[in-house]
Amino acid sequence: MNLVKKLGVKRKRDGLLKTALAVLRHLYLLKRQFVHKRTLKSALEKSSLSERFSRIHEKNLWESKESDSGPGSEIAYTEGLRAWLIDNLPRLHIKRLVDVPCGDFNWMKLVLPRVNVDYFGFDIVAELIQKNQTLYGAERVQFGVANICEDTLPHCDILMVRDCLFHLSYADINKFLDNISGLEYRYLLTTTHLVESGFANKDIVSGDHRALDLFAHPFNFNEKFVIDRVNDFPVGHPAPRQMVLMKKAHVPTSIAVSALIHAAPPPPAEPEYGLIGTAYPSAFALCAG
């Protein structure tokens, strides 16, 4: 059944007004998706990671009304992780926490008053760090600008790398692993997606995003060394993920060499679900409801 016939069926079922509103909503979403993809493409053409992520931040491409760092940094989204940190940082005897990328500190500001740690938050977006330092900087809460793939970070008990690696290319993830291999820390707490059987990781241009399974090729993380896991997504989210805890001794220092051999950088990936956390309808979806 073509689109015209589907619209006719919908009009008979729902009436002219509801059909017209559905069409307008669909056109609005298509335009929004087009503008988002075009702006993201422009951001990914920047030469450095700092320029790319700063552009993404400037244009609010991770659209959230609550957090400059996107839906994943909203209070409701982080409920499970916040509870885990409050319960487990004391149990693990954590005294120094390095959080990179720290984003806009939207949710972590609710954790720190309930734990006894020295906190160091780093991000590659200088504007975010300046704002964080002004609003939240204190004797035991410090912020700095850093590129996790190459800059030296302070030693710590736990290194938290949340919602970061799935934005990086294979080459930059490899740089990240090599970089932190020289860092003195006890635990890594980082993000991996929950994927279906048969899922295969893919490369991207850094700044884009895709689901990432750290326990599949080309990554060398081993599930048997995971100390703990915490679900880090709201119910019904299209890209469920977890934070996994591992000791430094079990964190790989590189990815598979074969994955680093590319004739050319991969093109920007098509969004897997439109804007992050937003599902766009297909050409016929407006007729279904």
Oligomer: single chain
Helices and strands, in order, run as: HHHHEEHEEHEEE
**General form:** globular
Low-confidence stretches: 271-289
Tally of helical runs: 6
Rounded mean pLDDT is 84
* Helix proportion range: 25-40%
Strand content: 5-15%
**In whole angstroms, how far apart are the ends?**
16 Å
Radius of gyration from the alpha-carbon trace, in angstroms? 21 Å
Q: Major beta sheet, specifics?
A: 7 strands, mixed
Strand order of the largest sheet: 3-2-1-4-5-7-6
Count every beta strand, where a strand is a DSSP E run of 2 or more residues.
Answer: 7
Which class do the helix and strand fractions yield? alpha/beta
In terms of topology, how is this protein built?
Elements: H1 3-14, H2 16-44, H3 49-58, H4 79-91, E1 96-99, E2 118-123, H5 126-136, E3 141-145, E4 158-161, H6 170-181, E5 187-193, E6 228-231, E7 241-247
What does this structure look like?
With 289 residues, the protein is α/β, with parallel strands linked by helices. 30% of the residues lie in helices and 13% in strands. It is built from 6 helices and 7 strands, in the order ααααββαββαβββ. It has helices at 3-14, 16-44, 49-58, 79-91, 126-136, 170-181; strands at 96-99, 118-123, 141-145, 158-161, 187-193, 228-231, 241-247. The chain has a 7-stranded mixed beta sheet, with helices on one face.
